Amino acid sequence: ELPDGVTRPTVAQFKQLVVSALRELHGEVGAALPVDVLTYEEKTLSAILRVISSGFVKLWSALTLLGFYQNRRCAFRVLQTSPFLLALAGNSRELVLD
Amino acid sequence: NTAVSRRYVLCEVVSEDPRCRQCIEDRAVGLAVRDAIGRVHGDYGLACCSISFTVKYLNAYTGTVLLRCRKDSYRLLCSALPFVRQLESRNQRYPCALNTLHVGGTIRTCQKFLIQYNRRQLLVLLQNCTNEEERQCVQKSLSSCSLTEEQSQSGDEEDDGSTE
Question: Which family does the entry's similarity section mention (chain A) (predicted)?
């Protein structure tokens, strides 16, 4: 989430943001974690990230604690996590039971 | 068992520049180590290791440094030590490296290790002696060093004299 008026990051800038969040919280070791941006939608600023499971906690904690993008406040909201990509196709949080 | 468990990491400062010795003091070494932990492991790693972190002992003549940290974070500390590149003190900085010699649970085990290590190092120095005077100096030190039952600083036992 970004405030209004900030130019939306491109996918490369988005990845750079994720890596720099890791670097701040977990140092060079964190920044070296292989993180892949599988999908990225500039319009909604949403993405699917992939990381090795041993780096999961480092990634999520780094995203949670990232507060700034280009000197403007920002926040990462993790909507869903799963070991399987296919599971991300349906979000059980938004499931409406009849 | 609520006692805090700590690890003591024994290392030596290695530098090609002999002026680096004047930077071997607790504040400079402590800052250099914490800076390296911050770079390698980030804010989280630095905060983790900083609990109970201190420079417990150092010997500028031999370059020996004893660091203390919590048992839970000694791995973060040890993995960051190779990334210490320089020591800075009084606006002077000199390049150096830290060799890890021993990790122990108590100061005593590190002390015992250091005494044996220093004894072996003296033997190496003896082999490398270039003149008779140095040879006699080192031999005298070797024959006078021993592990006595009472607590004694291992740094004081061996007196290297003129050898470098």
Answer: Belongs to the eukaryotic/archaeal RNase P protein component 2 family.
Answer yes or no: is B140 within a domain. Answer: yes
Q: pLDDT per residue over B33-50, tens digit each? A: 999 999 999 999 999 999
User: Residue A91 carries which side chain, given as an amino acid letter?
Assistant: N
Q: What is the pLDDT of residues B85-113, one digit of tens each?
A: 999 999 999 999 999 999 999 999 999 99
Report if residue A18 sits inside a domain: yes
Query: Measured between CB atoms, does B41 come within 8 Å of chain A?
Result: yes
User: Distances from the Cα of B47 to the Cαs of B66, B68, B79, in angstroms?
Assistant: 20, 15, 15
Distance from CA of A61 to the nearest CA of B (A): 10
CA–CA dist B11, B84 (Å, integer) = 12
In this complex, do B41 and A24 lie within 8 Å of one another by their Cβ atoms? no
The CA distance from A29 to A20, in Å, is 12
B109, B22 contact by CB (below 8 A): no
On whether both B114 and B42 belong to a single domain, the answer is no
pTM above 0.90, yes or no: no
A and B: number of Cβ contacts within 8 A: 28
Interface residue A25 vs chain B (CB under 8 A):
yes
